Amino acid sequence: MSNAAIDLSDAANAVLQASASKKVDWIMADAWVHTPTTTIAFQWMAYMHRCGAVMRPPCLQIIADGGMGKTAVLLAYAELYPVQETDDPLRLQRPVVYVECKPEYSGERSVRHAILKACWPRAKRIAGTEEEVDATLRAQGVRMLLLDEFGELTKAGAASHRRALSELKRLSNTARIGIVAATVSNLAHVLDVDQQFASRFKRKITIGPWALSNVLRNFVYGLQRNLPFPERSQLDDSNCLPLIAQHSEGNTKEIVEVVRLAALHALDSGAERIEYAHLKLAIDSPSPPGIALSSVA
After folding, report:
1. Which residues contact 269 (CB under 8 A, 6 or more apart)?
2. Does the global pTM surpass 0.85?
3. For 133-145, what is each residue's pLDDT tens digit?
């Protein structure tokens, strides 16, 4: 069977003749596969980026439960706009900034510290002042902030919650940058405290659990075409797909992990493709695939 017939990705095709160890590394690495929902999210983020420094920058809220891929969406989009070096090492350009929100401080300081840590990842000291965050956003040419787990910044009480939103609104107004706020489902309401600011987040995208469908089949097919096997795998067929849906309970992270384990079991057995038996091993085996443990004493 030819490689063209099995529709391997170019990257996976390049690994076909690699050593088993390199194939293991490849299988265990993260791989991005678009879905209809993530495609729409990318399109809206591209639209926001294209808008530039308008008076009321468009905003977007992404809502998903844990393991459904909201972090992956933000990181994948941020990778499209890597940090740009300039003649001045202190003048890095970051058009899109991924911000991991952690409740290390309260109120406006929580927002500022999260943004400044993202803009200056090697900084040993961050003051967290209004002047510092404003100057940083200007100097680095930031046009979009991707705030992951934004709801975490609102857990320090009602007053702190309001101050955090007030600071985010101030930055949106003064720096004129688009904001994407990703939250888990049970914290989707956090923006509603400030009705004026919440009105900018009318555009909401929800990443819901997977159901047994052609959409799930396409996603699993996208995952398996990025795996280095010379024959077409069977994970998207009528036997494997229902088992994947049942085992994962519709959670993206669990789907990706069971496909990864099935691929490692297939590689461990010397198979030319991933079959139903390898998927069953991935689900039922109490131990991880031995080929992934070769370096463990």
Report:
1. 278
2. yes
3. 999 999 999 999 9
